[in-house]
Amino acid sequence: MIIQHLEAENYRNIRRCVIIPQNGINIIYGKNAQGKTNLLEAVWLFTGGRSFRGAKDADLILQGEAGAKLSLEFFSGERVQTAEITIENGRRSAALNGIPQKNASGLVGKFFSVIFSPEHIALVREGPSQRRDFIDAALCQIKPGYAALLARYNRTLNQRNTLLKDIPRHAELMDTLEIWDEKLASYGEAVVLGRMDYIHKIREPVKEIYAGISQHTETIDLTYQKSAENLKTALKASRREDVALGHTSVGPHRDDMDISIDQRCARSFGSQGQKRSAVLALKLAEAEMLYRQTGERPVILLDDVMSELDSGRQDYLLNHLNSCQVFITCCEPGAIKQLREGALFEMDSGTLIKK
Ligand SMILES: Nc1ncnc2c1ncn2[C@@H]1O[C@H](COP(=O)(O)OP(=O)(O)OP(=O)(O)O)[C@@H](O)[C@H]1O
Ligand SMILES: [Mg+2]
């Protein structure tokens, strides 16, 4: 997957910008608050997902303008393809090879990318939902039907929760739980299977990459933590408790992925550097999985990552990335000596200048 041409108009602080990147490493440098992350975010949107910064679509439009437009030309599936994203009236729409899609998620599975930004440390540091989201997002990119399955699971879960809240006032509804539990268990088991399979596959690359990043001084491991062994039985067993709580206490929405470094839980015991390295290993392994599943190497977006790594770790990272197209943002490109081969672009107040 290679970006050949990207154009952004009225996007965040970027009034208009064109970038023709090179196949290998592209460095976007500049002072703080110039629009470097904004540009990576624009690339990311072509995966069909939402902003990785959790921004509302309307906030992506240059303030005072009615709409934003992004156009991409990329090489994938042995041909040049185009994609467009328009953000207007608070919503995102997309076209692929000139064909309008039902919505922006129509681009999912067409353009692949993996993003690492400082906020992603939350993946190790914060609660289980961050880790579930990581696995789910990765699966949505590679497993056809997974996004729809997850949506069905969540819809059924919401319906069961509504029912649980109604039961105290309408005791006769207790019997209808059976039908919901049946449905929820079958979607839920499929979600769990998908996630466990993904962790099983990603585990080896994560271990290998982490060993590389830590220069073979530390080991990492991943384990899926189920909230229930048999979902159907567990749902049945927890009915009374769930009615009292007003929500469903077991299921994949309560599962977690345990990340341990040297056999200790990374969330509770990991240092800052270990957590950052763990997230990098997860992200690069995600890229490797995308490649294995699709035969396409995703575009790698590294926001502000190099400045926090020592030169040994930088070296490993850059060597590991040499077969992908990479976009790296930083403030001072000179400080990163291995970056000499990258194409250089300076971002200055939303204007990109090729160096
Ligand atoms: N919708 C918008 N309209 C206009 N400006 C915006 C919009 N959204 C964000 N900005 C501006 O974009 C700038 C931030 O851009 P960005 O986050 O890309 O900076 P950066 O170059 O990555 O900086 P840093 O090095 O600090 O990470 C801020 O000045 C912010 O006010
Ligand atoms: Mg930034």
TrEMBL record:
Gene3D superfamilies hit by this protein: P-loop containing nucleotide triphosphate hydrolases, RecF/RecN/SMC, N-terminal domain
Pfam families (UniProt xref): SMC_N
Residues involved in ATP binding: 30-37
Keywords on record: ATP-binding, Cytoplasm, DNA damage, DNA repair, DNA replication, DNA-binding, Nucleotide-binding, SOS response
Domain RecF/RecN/SMC N-terminal stretches: 3-339
UniProt KW Cytoplasm keyword: yes
InterPro entries named in the record: DNA-binding_RecF, DNA-binding_RecF_CS, P-loop_NTPase, RecF/RecN/SMC_N, RecF_2
Cell location: Cytoplasm
Domain of life assignment: Bacteria
Disulfide bond among keywords: no
HAMAP family given in the database record: RecF (MF_00365)
Protein's job: The RecF protein is involved in DNA metabolism; it is required for DNA replication and normal SOS inducibility. RecF binds preferentially to single-stranded, linear DNA. It also seems to bind ATP.
The family this protein is said to belong to: Belongs to the RecF family.
Entries under NCBIfam families matching the protein: recf (TIGR00611)
Protein name as annotated: DNA replication and repair protein RecF
Organism: Caproiciproducens faecalis
Gene: recF
